[in-house]
Amino acid sequence: MIRRPVNNNTVTEESAAVPAGGVRSAAQASHLRQAPFAWLLLATGVVGWVMSAILVLERLEVYRNPAHVTSCDINPWISCGKVFEHWQASLFGFPNPLIGIVAFAVPITTAMVMLAGAQFRRWYWIGLQAGVTLGFVFVVWLWSQALFDIYILCLYCMGVWAMMIPMFIQLTARNLAHGVIKAPAAFVRFFTSWSWTIIVLLWIATAASVFFRFLNAFIGV
């Protein structure tokens, strides 16, 4: 939990985030409020978990019946079933969505506990940041494989991509604002002030990369 000062030399998670001048930006202050972040963590975690669960169910059906047509087998370029056929879909020897089932349960649980009023110690936030960062890197790799190697899209996978962006950026902003991640005050102010802009830009960049990579498929050439 966040430790309260017992003397003048004690530093709390909150006080560690105060710049040298002693003034927080409005964006930093907003990130110090617990409920909005908890709701975002819950929403992104639930959507990511549901997308992963659907993929697991579809994969089990394919195991049972190799001729099964998945719910996102729309055309040759948008097909979960075809993606399942590639090694990237089971990087560690089992279907990737199983990782999502386990991993997304952590931010969901974290959000529920936060909404109940509990607070976590700094080591927990460091661990969560490490886990979400690894997840984000994994998603970036999967995006690159879908666009430049497999050349097939999976709608549910793209749903996971979309959720990992705000989860990673806002968790990072939260941890910067609380001093969990040590950084210069100017960078903290910049990142917390522009976090949603960064998210929107990443969404746009991802959508644009998909559009231009699959442009020939979209226009029927």
Briefly, what CATH class?
Answer: Mainly Alpha
> What low-confidence regions span 5 or more consecutive residues with pLDDT below 50?
1-12
Helix content: 55-70%
Number of domains: 1
Quickly count the helices.
9
The largest β sheet comes out as: none
Give the termini distance in whole angstroms. 58 Å
Structural class: mainly alpha
CATH topology: de novo design (two linked rop proteins)
Silhouette: globular
**How many β-strand stretches?**
0
Rg, rounded, reads 20 Å
State which percent range the strand residues make up. Answer: under 5%
**CATH superfamily annotation:** VKOR domain
- CATH architecture, by name, is Up-down Bundle
Account of the protein in words:
This protein is mainly α. The chain has one domain: de novo design (two linked rop proteins), CATH 1.20.1440.130. The protein is built from 9 helices and no strands. The chain has helices at residues 26-32, 34-64, 80-84, 97-103, 105-115, 122-150, 155-177, 185-213, 215-219. It is globular and about 55 Å long. Residues 1-12 have low confidence and may be disordered.
Overview features:
disordered N terminus, mainly alpha, de novo design (two linked rop proteins), 221 residues
Concise account of the structure shown:
67% of the residues lie in helices and 0% in strands. The protein is an all-alpha fold. The N terminus is likely disordered.
